[in-house]
Amino acid sequence: MMRMETAAHAVQSVGRQYIEMRSPTSTGLDLVQNLPSVSVAMPDTSGFKGGAIYLRGLNDSDMALLLDGAPDSLAAYLQQNVDPENIESVNITPGSSPVDAPASNAAAGTLEERTITPSQKMGGMVDFSYGTNNLSREFIRLESGQIGNSGVRAYISFSNAHARQWMGAGTNERKHVDVGIQKDFANGSYLKFFGSWHNSLFTIDAYPTESQFFAYKHTGQGYNRTNVWDPTSPTAGNYWKSNLDSWNQFFLTAPMHFVVNRSLDFDLTPYFTTGFGWDGSTGGTVGTFGACTGGCFYGNGTQASAGQQLSTYWSQGWSPDVGLTAKVNYRIDRHNQLTFGYWYENNAIDYAFPYQATMPDGRNPTSNNNAYKLYTADGVRTTFQYNAGYELNSFFIEDTAKYLDDRLTINGGFKYVMSNYWDRASGLSNYTIGANSTAPLPHLSISYRFNEHHQIYINAEGDFRQPSPSALSNATTMPKNQYSITEQIGYRYNNKWFLFDIAAFNASITNRLLSIYLPNTAYATTNAGNQTIRGFDAMIAGREFHHFSPYASVEYLHGTFDSNIPYGDTYLPTKGKESILTPRVMANFGLTYNSSGFFGNFSLHYTGPQSVTLVDDQRMPGFVTNTLAVGYHFKPFMFLKSPTFRLNFSNITGSIIRVGTTGPANNYRPVTLLDGSTLAAGSGAQFYVLPRFSMTGTISTSF
């Protein structure tokens, strides 16, 4: 659960051996949930939905999420781009990012997934899983091996999964294809390709307020979707077929490395990703929808009845994110290597919030189903249409110097980012806003190894973040760009018995951007003043002793808002308050066993109490989560090279606890604003609840 690192910044990672012990339904978030800087909230245990990740008081919006060197999806959709069987490693570098990474929003750090390399030999792998909530999952990967004398090898994999909701009514389905290709050259050059297609249809969860959570905890009254469709009921919109998410995702990246000579090499990584589909939820009735005060009509001219149930959507069309990074590495002498390069990205997204008539059986129709489209009396379709995006150009330069027999490493870099942002609305709302931005992002790291056992390092960098284009809907002005400066200092020690790593950090953030959850799986963005976060994290792991390998980690955090946050024409009293989602303490313990075919892993995670409202008047208690994996590797039999059976358990104790929020809330109780007026009490935050006890059994083998 920990490996020896030498980089000049904090590194926390999991590798293939650990990943193979986890459930095949794991996402990238599941795999890192026991690293010291991380707290993870997952809405289900079946791998259909992403979740939330909190890192040093920040979240995934402040992280560089990468897959094979290309920008990955946000945490809520991280499961869309790669199956866990094809992940080689997941690395987190808290508070830092490489200068050449295609990202600028790394105040919290970097999470990078690396895919497996295609095998040299023809063969493959297959696994089958069955578990709680009628989970069934099948996976197969076929390996080509070396194709003739071409030096090319490849794999293709397919997975299919189905499960019920762990709470309430509804089902979830998922299909996924991964393709990997690699070509190596004798001089060290290589060409690599990874592509994936993801298709899912799942039930959108309802997330509880505090009162709804306690009703579930103390009385067993669920808060999620129902299997009853009654259009006359006030709760008609909670029918599960009225709350569906249909999505297709494509991801392509092609890292290439070219060696020119001993002093010069070149890297090029083009990437492409796009997704299209819709998230549907209840939208009231024709009589309550403001745009239909003059009546709403179907495409054939028939008027919709005043009580007609409506479905509302977050709907996205073909919206490509295209980019590339290119860099040249030149070894000036035996001490210095100079890197300079260019990053380009074009992200254009077309999305809408259409209203349509709900189908007679309560299901929300597809967002482009003409039979259920509605129009106003003026013939305007009942939709808010948006086109948003940005075009980004960035140049970077970096020098890595090594002295004292390579024990001293100094790395200095600089990235300059220029972007053009836009957001245009049409349909029931019309506006155009935009902005041009530039940001200088310095990087510096210094590492010194006293000997093979001791190392110290310091790291500092600047990061900036713009709001996601898909989170700009209904914005009258562009939110200010967030800028942050992060510093950290660390020490590492290793010997034949154990590894130890400790790092202290400080982050100063200006114009903090916060993501606010909308009730159809989309997010909006707002500014939240300035913020300071500081603390330390430490981890220790024992090398294998009598087949056991222990691991433990702890993190201390202290975060505060440094300014009052605007609210209308006044301010919320937030200056000096504890910043949201910044628990003072997080801790982990893990124990791994491996001997004579038997293997197992037990992990325990603790996150302390934390504020969940901006004015710090609602808090989420501390909580403990746990996982257990046990299994056995059988001896090879005929063409079965590695027959394995394993069981994975989560929430072994059956705890009913909150593990995160869908986003910040202003307040929970009445609060006096800075102009003396009173802001009425609200419902507070909405929470992720830890899914109940689950078990997954898996049979797998390579061949």
TrEMBL record:
Membrane topology type: Multi-pass membrane protein
UniProt keyword Membrane, yes or no: yes
Location within or outside the cell: Cell outer membrane
Pfam families hit by this protein: Plug, TonB_dep_Rec_b-barrel
Keywords: Cell outer membrane, Membrane, Receptor, Signal, TonB box, Transmembrane, Transmembrane beta strand, Transport
Coiled-coil residues: none
Gene Ontology CC terms, in alphabetical order: cell outer membrane
An MF annotation (GO) of this entry: siderophore uptake transmembrane transporter activity
Biological process annotations from GO: siderophore transmembrane transport
Domain TonB-dependent receptor-like beta-barrel: 197-652
Span of domain TonB-dependent receptor plug: 6-108
Major subcellular location class: membrane
Family per record: Belongs to the TonB-dependent receptor family.
Protein name: TonB-dependent receptor
Organism: Gluconacetobacter asukensis
